[in-house]
Amino acid sequence: MSDRADWQPLRDELQRWSAAGRKAKLWFRDDDAIEPTPALDRLLSLANRFDVPIALAIIPQPTGKALAVRLAGESRVTATVHGWTHQNYAPGDTKKQELGLHRPQAVVLDELHRGFDKLEALYGKQFVPLLVPPWNRIDDALLPHLAPLGYRAVSVFGLAKQAPIGLINTHIDIMRWHGVRGGLPHAEVIGRLVEELRIRFDGHDEPIGVMTHHLVHDDLAWDFVETLFEETADHAAIEWRPVGNFVY
């Protein structure tokens, strides 16, 4: 577990926002949902306890009715499209990518069309027409073709750039993906969050996206999520928003 003193820089930054009478817009995205699991239950419990809306990036091909039934009564959850199979098609010496041009463009777009239709049918009003590319990577050549499929926005990682479709990005990743996997030290993640808040304070209006992966969380990662919600859910300077607020 992390020392709560690690969170003081966030408290100080939020006090600056409060003193200025301002609110920072945050949203929460969790990736790789397929089926009901104890880890998903734990995430949903935290969302309900602290009244924080959650955007689940669901992998369409392997998912089914079981997850939709589990989520049907979860008013804080929205369903978004996480590629099709979350399969890597990039050569071994390059960064992983499902939505690249390693296959015919028509094949990739057909899968994205099927993913959209499947999740829209399963989730109805819980569905948000947002594409979350696996590994946060999608070839730019595909972007102009997404709106005709029904997509209204894409979510990758980092400050949004000009694109032919809306970008609702994440900026904070709580996980360590190289070496020994698990949650990053709280102080490191808080440092990144404070940096993003300072960018917004200086005039950048993009909502801050926090990205998690419930299936691979260790105790440090779970403790971060719970502490983040404790520190921010009722704070005068923070507004947790459903991702649909930014897509429509």
UniProtKB/TrEMBL annotation:
<protein>
    <recommendedName>
        <fullName>Chitooligosaccharide deacetylase</fullName>
    </recommendedName>
</protein>
<feature type="domain" description="NodB homology">
    <location>
        <begin position="37"/>
        <end position="154"/>
    </location>
</feature>
<comment type="function">
    <text>Is involved in generating a small heat-stable compound (Nod), an acylated oligomer of N-acetylglucosamine, that stimulates mitosis in various plant protoplasts.</text>
</comment>
<comment type="similarity">
    <text>Belongs to the polysaccharide deacetylase family.</text>
</comment>
<dbReference type="InterPro" id="IPR049591">
    <property type="entry name" value="CE4_u4-like"/>
</dbReference>
<dbReference type="Pfam" id="PF01522">
    <property type="entry name" value="Polysacc_deac_1"/>
</dbReference>
<dbReference type="InterPro" id="IPR011330">
    <property type="entry name" value="Glyco_hydro/deAcase_b/a-brl"/>
</dbReference>
<dbReference type="InterPro" id="IPR002509">
    <property type="entry name" value="NODB_dom"/>
</dbReference>
